[in-house]
Each structure stands twice: as C-alpha cells, then as structure tokens.
C-alpha cells in the first residue's frame, strides 16, 4: 500500500522529525474555485499553516501516485488545467491505475491522509445531504468517509446548498461528532450561524485535540467535523445568500446537473450570481480555518 504514496521533501522531513502536519484537499483548487484565485489561495493557506507551527500537505493524484505535499508547480497545474478529474473514494483505484491527474475531495483526502498517518485536515466546506435528496439520493461520499476514517476535518460548517438538517441527522446516525469551534450554533459556511446547534463546543485547540485523542484511544472509528464560523466581517447576509442559492438550485435542476457535477456547478453559479462575493467569503473562511487547523494539529501532536 505504501508504494502508492509519494511525499514532498517538506512533508517527509516533518514526518521524520515528528512535526505536526495538516492535510489539504485539491478538489477545492481544481473544481471549487476559479483560476488564478484558487492557486493563490492554496499557496496562502499553506503559508498560514507554516506560520502557525505546522506543515501543510496538499494531497492529489499524479501519474499513479498519491502525492502527500505538492510543489508550487504542481499547485499551479491543479489550478490551471482542464483535464483534472474530481477524485472521491470510488475514483481512487481507477485514476491511479490509469495514471490520471486527480483532485481529491474531502472523502478521498481523508483516505489518503489516513494512509499517510495524518489526522488533521483543513478545508472550506464538506459535502453533505443535498436538498431534495429524499428523491435524488444525492448524498456526498464525504459523510460515509467521516463515518469510517480517522481524520478530523476543520471546515466552516455545512453550506446551505445542502440540506443542513438532514446532513446533521446523517452524521448523528453514523456517530460523527460535530464540534463548534467557539460557538454553540452550527456555522453555515457563508454565515457564522444557522438555525442548528452543534453537538459539542470547544473553545481552544487543546479541547479539540483532547476529544480526538480520547475518541481514537477508544478505537471509535471515524472522523469529526470541527466547524469554525466565518468571521462576521467576511460573512454574507443570510437572506441575500439564501435567495441566490435558491436561484442556483433552480438553474442546476433546469440544466439537469447530476452526480459529481452538482457541487462544482452550485459553487460556480453562486459565485456568478453574487458577483464574486461568495468567492471572497470562501477564500477568507478557508484561511481562517487554516489558522485553527494548524493550532489543533500542534495541540494534537503535543
Ligand atoms: N464545498 C465547498 N467547496 C468545495 C467542495 C465542497 O465549499 O470545493 C468540494 C469538496 O472537495 C467536497 C466535494 O469534498 O466538493 C463534495 O462533492 P460531492 O458533493 O460531489 O460529494
Ligand atoms: Mn453528490
């Protein structure tokens, strides 16, 4: 299994000297944000993680290998090329065997991080139960991965392109803890709050690290969602964004968007309809998550 893994020099060094490492996904680069903001953000997020005492490991599939840590040129390639596949759990075997470029989703990044022994992962938003899933059955593989793979995901909560209530029910059934970082309310990505509460609240990195340590000491398989709210100054007004999401959902439906294309379509459409404000918010919240995620990795490593 180790023969499929290939580490950057920076990650290799961190592993041999026992430094804290933070995993990062690549779907957010290739399919979640437009070029060139995607590459710029990816680089800045990596630097924020370094500045907060941890080592970044952006994960992607290249030429039959799972790359744990990308070079600057590789980040550029993932941000600026059309032929990158969106890689979730089901895609890993095929994309590696055929030596294609694959940008890993939350689910696939968790799998690869776990193979590399990395327990802390920072991103913007997770996939979830989509609105209308009671008929479409569109439920992200991210949720099943959180149920079974031992990686904590620091994100900005669940986006309201999803059915947040059903996403929480699914996570509850699967025994995945949803922790609010400094909040009792579940953040909803573009807004710091939603109408839903989290399961537990943690007010500092040590509290998160302690909870993860006990969970995994007990061999309770699976991950955790650490939901860190977007800062007020970066947030988008709830009524405005809800309206836009409703329009984007209608367009997705009218265009017959299905399967793995739903989330990228929605992100692109919301960006267009907000004239870029959703992208600015997305960039700000990922950076905010990188600060907290690095601090959690440091505490978990202690
Ligand atoms: N949410 C975002 N940005 C993203 C994604 C989700 O705000 O880029 C990506 C993540 O990689 C996530 C994936 O794992 O979309 C979920 O896709 P799906 O719903 O097809 O499982
Ligand atoms: Mn889906």
TrEMBL record:
Xref: InterPro entries: Indigdn_synthA-like, PsuG
Free-text comment on the cofactor: Binds 1 Mn(2+) ion per subunit.
Pfam family, one: Indigoidine_A
Residues forming the catalytic site: 25 (proton donor), 159 (nucleophile)
Binding-site residues, Mn(2+): 138
Cofactor: Mn(2+)
Gene Ontology molecular function terms on file: hydrolase activity, acting on glycosyl bonds
Residues binding substrate: 86, 106, 140-142
Catalytic activity as recorded in UniProt: D-ribose 5-phosphate + uracil = psi-UMP + H2O
General function of this protein: Catalyzes the reversible cleavage of pseudouridine 5'-phosphate (PsiMP) to ribose 5-phosphate and uracil. Functions biologically in the cleavage direction, as part of a pseudouridine degradation pathway.
Protein family: Belongs to the pseudouridine-5'-phosphate glycosidase family.
Subunit and partners: Homotrimer.
Protein name: Pseudouridine-5'-phosphate glycosidase
């Amino acid at each position: 299994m180790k023969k499929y893994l290939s580490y950057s020099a920076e990650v290799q060094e961190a592993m041999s000297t026992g430094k804290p490492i933070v995993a990062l996904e690549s779907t957010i680069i290739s399919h979640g944000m437009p070029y060139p903001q995607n590459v710029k953000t990816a680089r800045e997020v990596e630097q924020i993680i370094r500045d907060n005492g941890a080592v970044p490991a952006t994960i992607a599939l290249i030429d039959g290998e799972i790359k744990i840590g990308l070079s600057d040129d590789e980040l550029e390639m993932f941000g600026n090329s059309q032929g990158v596949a969106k890689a979730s759990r089901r895609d890993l075997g095929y994309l590696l065997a055929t030596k294609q470029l694959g940008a890993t989703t939350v689910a696939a990044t968790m799998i690869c991080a776990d193979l590399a022994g990395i327990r802390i992962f920072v991103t913007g938003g997770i996939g979830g139960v989509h609105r209308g899933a009671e008929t479409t059955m569109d439920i992200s593989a991210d949720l099943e991965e959180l149920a079974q793979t031992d990686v904590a995901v620091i994100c900005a909560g669940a986006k309201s392109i999803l059915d947040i209530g059903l996403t929480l029910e699914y996570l509850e059934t699967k025994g995945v803890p949803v922790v609010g970082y400094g909040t009792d309310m579940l953040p909803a990505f573009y807004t710091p709050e939603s109408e839903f509460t989290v399961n537990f609240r943690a007010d500092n990195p040590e509290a998160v690290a302690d909870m993860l340590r006990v969970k995994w000491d007990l061999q309770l398989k699976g991950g955790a969602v650490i939901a860190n709210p977007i800062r007020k100054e970066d947030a988008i007004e709830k009524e405005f964004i809800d309206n836009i999401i409703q329009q984007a959902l209608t367009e997705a439906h009218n265009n017959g968007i299905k399967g793995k294309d739903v989330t990228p379509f929605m992100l692109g459409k919301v960006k267009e309809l907000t004239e870029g404000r959703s992208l600015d918010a997305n960039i700000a919240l990922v950076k905010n998550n990188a600060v907290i995620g690095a601090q959690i990795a440091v505490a978990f490593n202690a």
